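Minutes, methods subgroup
Present: GH (chair), OT, SY

1. OT presented the first of two proteins processed in the latest run. Sequence and structure tokens recorded below as shown on screen.
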Amino acid sequence: MRKVTLIILPLLLFINCIEEFDLGIEADDEVLKILIVEATLTNELKNHTVALSRMDTLVDLGIDSVYNPYTPIRDINRDLVRYETNATVSIENSNGITYSFNESSPGIYESDIQFAAEMGSSYLLNIVTSDGKKYTSTDMEIEGLASISNIYAEKTTSESGTEGIGIFVDNTIETGSVQNLRYTYDETYKIIAPNWSPNEFKLTNYDPCALPEVTYDLEIVEREEEQQVCYGNNLSNTIIQTQQSSINTDVQKVMVRFLDEENFIISHRYSIEVSQLVSGSASYSFYDQLNNFSQTGNIFSQIQPGFLEGNLSSEDGRQGTVIGFFDVVSVSKSRLFFNYTDFYPNEELPPYPFNCNELTAPESHVSFCFSGMRGPNPCPQSIIQQIDLDLISYVKPNFNDGQCDGPHIFVPKVCGDCTVLGSNIQPDFWVE
């Protein structure tokens, strides 16, 4: 028996967040086999996606997911989730059409063809895992249609009193029964490396164990790829819902995102695409409950498995074997661009979120295989060691002659190479 930590990725495809839930119970291995299902079918013509994973016992997600400029980079989402592979996934509609899904990457299943959910049709999700267990959803259908009529940004103050910029939407009801709305967003922002140089280190023939001295070739060469200007991207990591007191009432000025005026992602140019999802009451209740869980501490301390009621069940009728919600919704999307100077024309840009002090160090070091006497080393890790670990970016020559000075000035890689934080490929939708 052991304590269980549940890793839930609510709507990975749209939210992309990791929540750590401490069940506060002692459980056997059967509890760890609970299947996590993330699936939302929309009225968009596209290849739809279903994500399957398992309950796990991973901890320290908050620490592990923070970027550290002095350690190698890892893909947190892929590294820390135990995905369910080799399953058979399909969606069946009330007209008798079945859409098959194939595993495009571990635990991620993509429809064979593009299709869109239609008003008036119901849809059923079927899953067969590699061990033969069958799971199915209740029938779901689109409740109604509502379009985003306006998206805009305004200077505002958060509930905690922080000054910043709010992203707001208005909508217009089109047809059907519209009462429950959920919002997600996909934000993109320009990153400019503050200590970029047109040159970079090139280390070759490095043997840290060579004797009597380390061997290597170190050159300063022109950069071969764009590393000054990049584009970062974040998906929404909170559950944003609104429920109208009456059906088919237009929504005005819903704030879907708040950006602190000191948030570096708005330093240069910022874009956000907001998705408005029209959902049903069962969906609203599920996500409301999930949201409440994510905002509490030991949320399951007095709750047994079966704590989160979704719309999926196992064929054998066993309770507590699957968690998740198969949702069928209509979607309306709208995009907004703005610059920091649009709102703060005479103010300094938000600070870069990393310490970018210029540094130096001895170029080389004592052989790792040296077995003689050596005293303590008062100097920082050598330049070639840090280059080998891909930790630093070249800035300029060093003309000082201190005890621990080397021939080069450098900064942490994140300060001179924007690809640490984003992509150097400009998105197709980007407009300057």
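2. SY then presented the second protein from the same run.
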Amino acid sequence: MPPASEASPVPFQRREPHRLRVLAGACGLGIGLGLIRSDFGVIGREMVVQEWVSQADLGELAALNMVGYLLGCVHQAQLKGKAQLLRSLRLALVVGVLCLWFGAVQSGQLGEGGLRVLAGWSAGHLMSGVPGLALAGVPSRHQRQAVATVMGGGALVALLGASAVAWLAPDSAAAAWLVVACFATVLALPTLWLINRGHRRWREVGKPGDQQLRDEQPRDEQRESEQQVAMHDSGVTAICWFPLIALTLAFALAGAAQVPMALYEPIVASNRIGLDGSMSSASFSAMGLGGLMGSLMLLGLPRALPTALLLPAVAAVGGLGAWVYALARSPQLLLLSAFLIGWWSIMTSSLTLDRLPDLVPAELQRRCWATFTTLNGLGFVICSMGTRSMAFTGLQTLLWLGVTLMAGVLLAQMCQVFRRSQPGNQSC
């Protein structure tokens, strides 16, 4: 038996309801993925209109946000101890909320850049670390639904945040920041409860009286209490390298494939279709709505449908969305493509997270997911940096590049379907 310092911070008993932890995890993803990452694009356009920053500066701020995100993901992947994990999540939560509040103060290019790096660092930690904490101990029959709920929190909050900004602060960047900061403060309360709960259970394991508690627990609960923070222990004892590499490649390419819509949609909306800023905001709302619909769809999908087969099907829908986006000449097609891409994005993230326990031992799942999010963000950064000039000189080429990247995602997802397993054993 490992020492108390190596005990899991989340030894939740199976009789304990898991729904509150899952909902709290959704709140954490709502802050990191929804408010800090997604809604920055909505507020950024207002910052340009009010001349807080220029259009070129906005692109640099978005890049700095992703740099901070990568730093947070890399840092999260390097954490080994459970105490470090919990401390980092608590700090990231506080830093992220404060950055949103300070965003309401016009601080110049240097100040804005610093805030974006810190906010991105916070989002990276929350995206990488919160799911494992929220999903630990969830029964296997509820695993996919729990994953969909946690990841869906990001899509739902992004949609609510963008809608609230458009309604409450349509003409003020400072007011827009205050709106999302209020959202983040409210969502931080259940997220902090989740983190503190994990810390409390971890501390309790180290008490002298806990040996008797361990002896009284069923063996499978003891195992759950002693393992690293994991989403689900499916019995896999060795890494399934081939499907894992294919899944990793698909998720990295997915980050790059998001660039044409997530970064250059305002240019497409204004220069190509002739729409104003309000219609551009509507397309971002359509992306959030698509993500929300994807999460709701996952809640209703039976567990009998293999995750490995769902991933390429979802990639095909994403490819369709990218193709419609490349050909869009009307507001209707722009909104349709935004909806499909938003649906694909959240479905891909959720199903990738759900697929990991089939390929990776329990003690490696959290660090593996942190690595996945790192590579996804790295794909976004590399593609955005490499296509900056194309946005003005070769926009159509950029859009077809997005379609090509989606095709690469589909091919990689088809490869991850295959998994070699030994008869009577869960190792690969």
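Chair's summary of item 2: The CA atoms of residues 351 and 357 lie 11 Å apart.
Next meeting: continue with the remaining queue.
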